[in-house]
Amino acid sequence: MTVINCPMGINRPLLIDSATLTNRLTTEDLPAAYLDLLAEKNGGYLQNMWLPTPEPTSDGLDYGLIHYIFGLHHDPETSILHQQRHDFPDYFVIFSANEQQLFAFDYANQDVQNQPAIRHLDIETDNWQIVAPNFQRFLEMLQPYQLTIPLEGKLTRHETNHAFLLVDDADFLEELWLHVEDWEDKEWLLGWLEHFTKHPKLAYRRVTLAALEVQLLYFRLSFPSSGVDLLNRFLADEDEGLRKQAEALITELAEV
Questions:
Q1: Domain that holds residue 211
Q2: What positions belong to coiled-coil segments (predicted)?
Q3: pLDDT in tens, 36-45
Q4: Domain count, the chain
Q5: Does residue 7 fall inside a structural domain?
């Protein structure tokens, strides 16, 4: 599947009525390959994120990364209808954004089938480069990539969600928990903790319980009170060690 199933995502109905995108473009102008993708899943994080580029980007010397594809629906945060910017030409339609890095359909450059080229717009470096002749070729060019935790600064929200969705190593998951433990949005963090309490691999559940313990003991004033309920998952865990650890944590919390 091109788009990953997100445990906290909502697959909203695809909007079929014509709607305005820019002064000169409507949803009827959107590429067929993009609409086919949305018919499969109406927006979300991509399985492959690494894209070769002819020029450097903020991600690398010869590549860029794409995370979330906007859907076609009415949610203002994740719909392509609500992402267009007046400081860009009206022949650009932004379909993905990660802070200062954007991807857009470029209707000033179309192929022989009148499908728009794909532009990578790096606001930080002021570099606007064509990276694919059309959206279908763009999807074909994408390759797997493992995000890494930066030594300085923080991953963006999109990068972090993407990393959680693609995590394939318990050690990396532990690094992610450490990376986000002081983030202010504890409801968001609670959602990911809940997701990994159900992971089939013991090593993943073990580092998740450790991360939950940090939140309950050291961030209890800002962490949702419902977070304590996640301990019930571990009390019923098939692993005796996790059950005992959860019991000890409940006892410790009662004494705080």
A1: 167-255
A2: none
A3: 999 999 999 9
A4: 2
A5: no
Share of the chain above pLDDT 70, in %: 100
Tokens of 99: 């802070």
pLDDT band at 1; cut points 50, 70, 90: low
The alpha carbon of 202 is separated from its chain's Cα centroid by a whole number of angstroms, namely: 25
3-state SS string for the chain: CCECCCCCCCCCCCCCCCCECCCCCEHHHCCHHHHHHHHHCCCEEECCCEEECCCCCCCCCCEEECCEECECCCCCCCEHHHCCCCCCCCCEEEEEEECCEEEEEEEEEECCCCCEEEEEEECCCCEEEEEECCHHHHHHHCECCCCCCCCCCCCCHHHHHHHHHHCCCHHHHHHHHHHHCCCCCHHHHHHHHHHHHCCCCHHHHHHHHHHHHHHHHHCCCCCCHHHHHHHHHHHCCCCHHHHHHHHHHHHHHHHC
Q: Which of 100, 87, 106 is nearest to 31 (CA)?
A: 106
Together in a domain, 83 and 182: no
| Angstrom distance (rounded) from CA 174 to CA 150 | 14
Say yes or no: 106 and 172 in one domain.
no
Residue 56 forms part of a structural domain: yes
Say if residue 256's pLDDT is above 80.
Answer: no
Sequence-separated (6 or more) residues with CB below 8 Å from residue 100: 58, 122, 123, 124
